[in-house]
């Protein structure tokens, strides 16, 4: 995956949140999985089915990285990720979660080292299942619709506007860069 990290600390696991199936591809809620597609493309690796996830393995400097996209729906992702971490013999400290964020304007990317779910059902599921808020996140701003009643459709079924679609590749690259910064600076 490129340059970076120092001594090997064991693999890190990057999970891109989204909903399974082609009907959800390209929606705001699946931007986390789109970032993982960019990372896999950069590394020249492919995703393969492994139980409840599609998984790709690559490297960033001396760090091994697993990229995982859940095959379960967003609000049920916690148990799936917990099983994956157990199968890979990793704990939540090795986890980076990439997800959409309604509270960030479209195109903004923010890193959080820990924290509450902020109303995001996928992050809520992870916190409840893992029993901790101590995992790293890369939040990708998708903007907010005009009314609260529009939120579900906005995230789950609405695609990006033509202007957002034109800017999206740069946003995904920026988010991928932020993931790799976290990978490179992890001290385990």
Give a brief rundown of this model.
This protein has 188 residues and is of the alpha/beta class. The chain is built from five helices and seven strands.
Write the SSE topology.
Layout: E1 12-16, H1 31-43, E2 48-50, E3 53-60, E4 63-70, H2 77-87, E5 95-101, E6 109-112, H3 121-130, E7 136-141, H4 151-156, H5 162-185
Parallel strand pairs: 1-4, 1-5, 5-7
Antiparallel strand pairs: 2-3, 3-4, 6-7
Helix pairs in contact: 1-5, 2-3
Description:
With 188 residues, the chain is an alpha/beta fold. It is globular. A hairpin with a 2-residue loop joins strand 3 (53-60) and strand 4 (63-70). The chain has helices at residues 31-43, 77-87, 121-130, 151-156, 162-185; strands spanning 12-16, 48-50, 53-60, 63-70, 95-101, 109-112, 136-141. Helix 2 crosses helix 3 (121-130).
Defining key terms:
188 residues, alpha/beta, Rossmann fold, seven-stranded mixed sheet, 5 helices, 7 strands, 22% strand, globular, disordered N terminus
Rg over alpha carbons: 15 Å
Domains (count): 1
Order of strands in the sheet with most strands: 2-3-4-1-5-7-6
**Spatial gap, N to C terminus:** 19 Å
